[in-house]
Amino acid sequence: MKIFRTINLWIGWGLFFLAMLVYTLTIEPTASFWDCSEYIAAAYKLQVTHPPGAPLFLLIGRMFSFLAGNNTEKVAFWINMSSVITSSATVMVVFWIISLLARRIIGKTTQDLQLYEAASIWGAGIIGVLSLTFCSTFWSNATEAETYACSTLLMSLTVWAMLNWEYTTPRPRSYQWLLLVAYLIGLSLGIRMFSVLTIPALCLIFYFKRVSKITLLGTTITLLIGGILLAFIYTGITLSLPTCAMQLELLCVNQLGLPFKSGIIILSITLIASLTYGIIYTIQKQHTTIHIGLLCLGFILIGYSSYGLVPIRAHANPPINEGHPSDIISFINYLKREQYGHRPLVYGPHFAAQVISAKKGDPIYRNTGKKYEIIDYKHIPIYDAGAYTLLPRTWSQQNSMHITAYRKILNLKPWQKPSLGDQLYFLIRHQLGHFYLRYFLWNFAGRASDMQGASWLTPLDAFEKLPPSLTQIPGRSNYLFLPFLLGLIGMLFQYRHDRRYFWVITILFVMLGAALVTFLNPPPIEPRERDYIYVGSFLFFTIWIGLGTLAVVNYFRKLFTQYKIAVTIGIISCLAVPSIMATQAWQTHNRSQRYFSVESAKNLLASCAPNAILFTAGDNDTFPLWYVQEVEGFRTDVRVVILSYANAAWYIKQLTRPVNNSAPLPLSLPFEIYQQYGLNDILPYVPQPNIQELDIIQYLQLIRESHPALQIQNILRETTNTLPCKNMCFHIDKTGIAAKEIVPTQYEYLIPEKMSWSIKGRGLDKRDLLILDLLATNNWERPIYFNHSSLHTLNIDLSTHVMVEGLTLRLMPIQNNIGHELVNTETMYNNMVKNFYWKGMDKPGVYYDENYRLVFIRNQRMSFCTLAKACLHEGKLQQAKEVLLYGLSVIPDEVVPYDIANVYMIHLLFEVGENEHALNMIKIIGNRAEEILTYKTRKSSFIDREVQEQMGTLYEIARSLRAIDYQELAQEYEDLLNKYQILLDVPDDNNNDIARR
């Protein structure tokens, strides 16, 4: 068939435009939550993201941002479109890969193919890539600005290029495909290293082509060589090459007295000269293999050169400059992700290991302006006997939740330590099962809901009768196992007809899936589901779905004498797979009308007074704030401070310079105090009996002086400052405070002579010291705010010194001893009713996932309750009524179903005289609670979070009705609650506890 290649090419492009249409219709029009907001903000101004960075992705995003013109609100859309384009291109490339593999199975050249044989190949490719198009994880990546869409394109191009090399060899200049492979691998180092993980499979393709007789020994050796090449690129180029540059830089600057960056320049010149000489020499001596190898290395380095963006932009001090990797020392730390700690892979300590001592590790250098000075040494912990194990899967000691989860999963008693068998069990049961197989079945079997920890669905679940309130469970999709079964058929079909390339695809599938999760060694609890990490594995399974279509056509050929009937029926029947994937998942992947990620960020900033300082707990609740400030220019006067970064000296240094319209933080301690390694990183509580209360001004002075009275020797016999008392105070100038009119008039009586608080933990961190310094130096000039999570993150208990002004808590010179939360009702009313943003919240049918519903939207609803309750407390009945009704209008039940916040709103509606609204809400919420509890108790007697919440709902409804004297109706709900107490065997005295949860 002479025109096969032309038609094959155009079908691929047609699928590209089809996928682009799907993704454009479902794209998020603005910045999503999590890393997407950070990447958009960083791409827009070419800033430095979290380690190890994604410089190539930022460059691509910056180019797409130009399409927004002068409309900054369109920047996010166009950077999101970069994922749309790259994902659509991936679909096209995967079609060509399936076409190549299907043609191998048929065993004919393009010239010898008959029309219906070609049609079966195209049908296989179309079914396979449509399944990829509507694959849940791939679809999600395609509609937001994340690195995975671009990295899957580079990965698929790498495999496609290698297959083309195999197809064109031994034609002249076919090695050019190998150079393309090398360049694509180099480019992938600047985004995600998916292409690097394909190297063992690429080596296998090379082996199958070059060797006439395939043996098990030869295959094993080839895979070992592939593993060595993978390790060489991952560690030798991405890590060891910069480390060599660092060592040479230290030699040139510290020993030879040369200028800074001279070592890097010398290494770069030496590397380029050596490669150039080697390439020229191999041409002259006609060493073809070495010549191609050197060219490949050169192309990898050219692709890797995108990382030059990181130190260049870090040196320019942009507002987002994570890790400040402007010199070779900080750049190495940045590449190694040292701020995230170390995860052991082959051998290391388990979670129950106890630190008994420590030893000095590698030196820590600092650029002093004249040379690189050793300021300290890394501390390597020494653990107790029996602390180390092979395959340390249960390694995390990050927080008590991880340790509790380990013990629960492994069924270990508090005194037991995990064995090697426990490590293997956790690897198979939790990491491979929960963190990979569950994600895999989400994509090819179905997903129970979008709640974290949701299971996959079986075909029988499709016939389960759900109550009306659960028929539209967010994120629920059931594919009846059809994609999985068709992929399994394709896997077996390829194994039977093309065993060599079956192993190639299998290695790719395993390397991007099971091997990757084993290498990443995830802890037992993650802050969110991370199925997107394994999207490469899911992509290669869709290749088997395509080949499964070829198997179905082959089966129908045995039933029908005419080839065209077999092809037509086979392809049409297999179209059911991508069709059910598309129809089941469309709603939960349609983000086209979703704006609240940005609106909630604006609402948080709008809760702050001008020139404020806002503390957030971590990067995930900060990234949307960065986006609205850096891209849309919203409230750039507010300085956002991330507490999880505030233990790092580089971040504190950034806080001491102006950013946008925000002035530096007013700090009195010299930067050297924060920069000095070890002395003030952790200030442990070492009680001194003669000190009952510690004034922070005096304490900061002692810190400033490095006073011996505060200092002890740690396990490395190094000096560290301490905290001598857990009770701290700060004296207040009441006259000055009254003149500044900071505290609302009705709460001026709460202004004390001194603020007092206690320390919650075992001492102070550097970030706590920063808060104390700011409090002492600021003198109430700039407003200081916390979001709810950041306030509870501190070791300093400031909960009695804050006042709610919207979504934020403002630090005030008060001592709250009145037993309830303080609210500045006037400011909060103006913020929530007049200054907040609610775009898109009035449109029913928009899909809001778990993060929106259970965190951000619920928080806004709870804030309306807080404000209304405070208004009632102050006797502002009409204002409280207005707040409640306004809250119900901007976040209606038709858009986001009522949640627990609305349950607490019921008694407030009764208090303002809105009985009809309250009773209507009770009917809706009560019916849903009954339906969910009936369904749950029929399936299980296990009390999960949802059961607790719904029982608490019934309890709260009954309590509200009793308070307003609706005794008969209250009794109905109490009887209903008692019914489920009996079914779930909950003792009466535990009911209030369930309601509180």
Word description of this protein:
The protein is an alpha+beta fold and 997 residues long. The protein has 39 helices and 18 strands. The strands form 7 sheets. A 5-stranded mixed beta sheet has the order 8-7-16-18-17. The chain has a 3-stranded mixed beta sheet with strand order 10-13-14. A two-stranded antiparallel ribbon has the order 1-4. α5 packs antiparallel against α21 (535-559), α18 (482-497) packs across α19 (499-511) and α35 (900-911) packs antiparallel against α36. The chain is globular. It starts with a helix and ends with a helix. 45% of the residues are buried.
In short:
The protein has 997 residues and is an alpha+beta fold.
Please outline the helices and strands.
Layout: H1 4-26, H2 35-45, H3 55-65, H4 75-106, H5 115-133, H6 136-142, H7 147-168, H8 176-188, H9 194-197, H10 199-210, H11 216-255, H12 262-285, H13 288-304, H14 309-315, H15 328-335, E1 347-349, E2 355-367, E3 372-383, E4 388-390, H16 400-410, H17 420-444, E5 446-447, E6 477-478, H18 482-497, H19 499-511, H20 514-520, H21 535-559, H22 563-574, H23 576-589, H24 596-606, E7 613-616, H25 623-630, E8 639-642, H26 649-655, H27 671-675, E9 682-684, E10 694-695, H28 696-705, E11 711-713, E12 719-721, E13 727-731, H29 734-740, E14 754-758, E15 763-765, H30 766-778, E16 784-786, H31 788-793, E17 802-804, E18 809-811, H32 825-835, H33 850-873, H34 877-890, H35 900-911, H36 915-939, H37 945-963, H38 967-983, H39 991-996
Parallel strand pairs: 7-8, 7-16, 10-13
Antiparallel strand pairs: 1-4, 2-3, 5-6, 9-15, 11-12, 13-14, 16-18, 17-18
Helix pairs in contact: 1-4, 1-5, 2-3, 2-4, 2-25, 3-4, 4-5, 4-6, 4-7, 4-21, 5-21, 5-22, 5-23, 7-8, 7-10, 8-13, 10-11, 10-19, 11-12, 11-15, 12-13, 18-19, 18-21, 19-21, 21-22, 24-25, 32-33, 33-34, 33-35, 34-35, 35-36, 35-37, 36-37, 36-38, 37-38
